[in-house]
Design a protein that fits this description.
about 350 residues; alpha/beta; about 10% strand; 13 helices; about 40% helix
């Protein structure tokens, strides 16, 4: 499985799996780490160092298959090239050894890789994060192969929110164009022009697409009421969720953003889009607002409603927290994954 570094949704979930006392108590787990990139900016860039590490992974897996004969092999499959080719080769090695394969898919594939996935996933148990992602895989998998397990996070506890006179908006994600940070900047500019009172924080690691200097330049016109704080982790990250009133992720290319679960855990109404499995996470009009596209004006309109209506924010905050507790805690995820691992059989 892919493990940090770098930190992103898949590696964060996999780190939880390794640390899970629930899974350790039910299974004898032997983890082969897939750690090839040092940072988000390094993802998807083949290097001699990465190729050498891949060779070590193949050697370790081949030894385990020959000498230990595991009951099954679980793989968090990367669906983007070039990592996809590496993972498909790993699956081929497992299949040749006639060991059951359990493949966990955390991302949405490009249509052109579906023929390759069809061959690689034949006969495997396939875990998807939501039924809303089923159509992305077409006939690359059959319904009989699929199990659904929603991601979950540890519940760090409820806090009492005190309404602020000037609401604070939070964006937290790696600075990728598809995540929509610049769309949010555009929307906030429109709100400022309309005289709407707000403060905002942008957090997340810079990337090759949006550098730190580019992000700071985009926020310069806002002077002191909008800031960029860079990547955050641990207590600093938790403090951001505690100290803000709305969470915004105007993404156009996500499957199941973990950060939305974090926002809901802290009782933040979420403004996002109808992408991937997000409608399974955020209930539009109940725990937040979902947008049909990547439109800055529409985003500004939704934000203005929530910024001006403190009573609506409070109601959404309570419902968001309740939905997290009922559906997306770490025990929900651990039990669901454990059930799939338990039922794995040779096909």
């Amino acid at each position: 499985m892919q493990l940090p570094p770098p930190i992103h949704g898949v590696t964060a979930i996999n780190a939880q799996i390794i640390a899970s006392s629930e899974l350790a108590g039910r299974f004898d787990l032997d983890v082969i780490p897939l750690q090839f990139s040092e940072s988000i900016a390094d993802l998807g860039r083949p290097t001699p160092k990465k190729l050498a590490r891949a060779g070590g992974v193949f050697a370790r897996l081949a030894w385990d298959l020959a000498m230990r004969r595991p009951a099954a092999v679980y793989l968090t499959l990367a669906v983007q090239r070039p990592a996809l080719y590496r993972d498909v080769a790993l699956l081929a090695l497992v299949r040749a050894a006639r060991v059951p394969r359990i493949v966990h898919l955390h991302a949405r594939p490009d249509p052109e890789v579906l023929p390759l996935l069809r061959r690689a996933l034949h006969g495997a148990t396939v875990i998807l994060l939501s039924p809303l992602l089923r159509a992305d895989f077409g006939d690359a998998v059959t319904d009989a192969q699929i199990r659904y397990v929603a991601n979950g996070l540890p519940d760090l506890g409820e806090i009492k929110r005190v309404p602020r006179e000037v609401p604070r908006v939070l964006f937290l994600s790696n600075l990728l164009e598809a995540k929509g940070p610049l769309v949010l900047v555009d929307a906030l500019t429109r709100l400022a022009d309309r005289g709407v009172a707000f403060e905002a924080t942008f957090a997340g690691a810079p990337t090759n697409e949006i550098s730190e200097s580019a992000m700071r330049a985009a926020l310069a016109p806002f002077e002191h009421r909008v800031r960029y704080v860079g990547p955050v982790m641990g207590e600093a990250k938790q403090a951001l969720f505690r100290d803000h009133d709305l969470f915004v992720l105007p993404t156009r290319a996500d499957a199941f953003p973990l950060v939305l679960l974090e926002a809901m855990m802290w009782g933040l109404p979420v403004v996002s889009t109808f992408e991937g499995a997000i409608p399974d996470i955020v209930v539009d009009g109940e725990t937040g607002c979902l947008l049909p596209g990547h439109d800055a004006e529409l985003l500004a309109e939704r934000l203005e409603i929530l910024i001006r209506d403190q009573r609506l924010r409070t109601a959404m905050s309570q419902r968001a927290r309740k939905r997290f507790v009922e559906h997306f805690t770490l025990p929900h995820f651990e039990h669901g994954l454990a059930d799939v691992l338990s039922e794995a059989r040779p096909r």
